[in-house]
Design a protein that fits this description.
By secondary structure, this protein is α/β, with parallel strands linked by helices. The chain is built from seven helices and 20 strands. The strands form five sheets. Strands 11, 12, 13, 14, 15, 18, 19 and 20 form an eight-stranded mixed beta sheet that branches. The structure holds zinc ion.
């Protein structure tokens, strides 16, 4: 069955890019609503202030994920909340926010996850559907790529590669089991950045709210923050956290096995466009139909490779 949050909850905090205080409320929603944002600071008609969390509303995927509706109303840095909603199994929710960016909190999804867990979920009387990948699809850009194949589960095999001796090549193969596993393995992994880049972004007026409280910062010697890493492989696991949030913009939980090399918000956005560009790439199924013969996937020998 589809689920929503038991009751509303509020979270406030500084935003990463503009450095102002953002106040948001997560509200229960009826079945088939999906995840919808509402800008309460804009006094237009109700319809004009609603922004559906859908891949075709993505307007920027540089540094963060930003969605914009057809009236030009937008909200950005949605990926960590989207990850918490996806990982915790929230199918429907209305998110009210009083500015154009969500709070960065501690740079992970853990605060959202704790709130969702303490409030609990409510089952709605409508069956949940999954977006199941029907055939292999590849999107590549320079030396990075995302490949997705049919699977009865949601799997993310992610590799990152950085010229830094603390990271180098880091790989983690995540197979989604349940919300507790998502909470323990992924949800508290923080975003990270390199000191040189941080300084140049600051000079350009970006990441005004960025600090050691909401990101792991690396310099040539190692980690600048006083506290240690929260998890082994925290860097690649944060990239998986981002991916789980961004891919939820398909509008459904996904059944598919993703292999990602040096990914990011942009690459996830492009693979969503590739998946949805052809109706034969995917189908909507119910959980019980996963093992049903007539729903069984058709494998195509030739994958679709797109390149910029
Ligand atoms: Zn992130």
């Amino acid at each position: 069955m589809q689920k929503t949050v038991n009751k509303s909850f509020n979270i406030s905090g500084i935003t990463l890019h503009s450095g102002i205080i953002s106040n948001l409320s997560v509200h229960p929603a009826t079945a088939n609503t999906g995840i919808v944002f509402r800008r309460v600071d804009i006094k237009n008609s109700n319809e004009e202030t609603l922004i559906e969390a859908k891949f075709n509303n993505v307007s920027t995927s540089n540094l963060c994920t930003k969605i914009t509706n057809k009236y030009g109303i937008s909200v950005s840095t949605i990926e960590h909340l989207m990850s918490a909603l996806h990982g915790m199994g929230v199918d429907n929710a209305i998110i009210e926010v009083d500015c154009d960016e969500l709070p960065i909190l501690d740079g992970s999804s853990v605060e959202y996850v704790s709130q969702i867990q303490s409030i609990g979920l409510k089952s709605l009387n409508v069956e949940k559907k999954f977006l199941s990948i029907s055939r292999p699809i590849v999107f590549s850009m320079n030396d990075s790529f995302v490949k997705v194949s049919p699977s009865d589960n949601f799997e993310v095999d992610y590799t990152i590669s950085y010229d830094h001796n603390l990271i180098k090549e880091q790989r983690f193969n995540y197979e989604f089991k349940d919300s507790n596993q998502f909470k323990n393995l992924i949800s508290n992994c923080r975003t990270f950045g390199f000191k040189d880049e941080v300084d140049s972004l600051r000079k350009r007026g970006l990441i005004a709210g960025g600090s050691l409280d909401n990101a792991i910062v690396l310099d040539k010697q190692g980690i600048v923050n006083k506290d240690k890493l929260r998890q082994e492989n925290e860097f690649v696991k944060h990239k998986i956290l981002d991916f789980i949030g961004d891919i939820y913009l398909l509008g459904y939980s996904v059944k598919g096995a993703f292999e990602i090399y040096k990914g990011g918000h942009r690459l996830t956005h492009e693979i969503m466009n590739s998946i949805m560009s052809d109706q034969s790439n995917w189908r909507l199924i119910k959980q019980e139909n996963l093992n049903d013969k007539k729903y069984q996937k058709t494998y195509y020998t030739k994958s679709i490779a797109l390149s910029l």
